[in-house]
Amino acid sequence: MFDYKLLAALAAVVEQGGFERAALRLGLSQSAVSQRIKLLEARVGQPVLVRASPPAPTDIGRRLLNHVQQVRLLEHDLQAQVPALDDGLPPERLRIALNADSLATWWAEATAPFCAEQRVLLDLVVEDQDVGLRRMRAGEVAGCLCGAERPVAGARSQLLGAMRYRGVASPAFVARHFADGVTAAALARAPGIVFGNDDLLQHRYLATLGFEEDFRHHLCPSSDGFVRLTLAGVGWGMVPELQAGQALAEGRLVDLMPGRGVDVPLYWHHWRNGGELLASLTDHLRRRAPDWLAVAD
Question: Is pTM beyond 0.85 here?
Answer without folding.
Answer: no
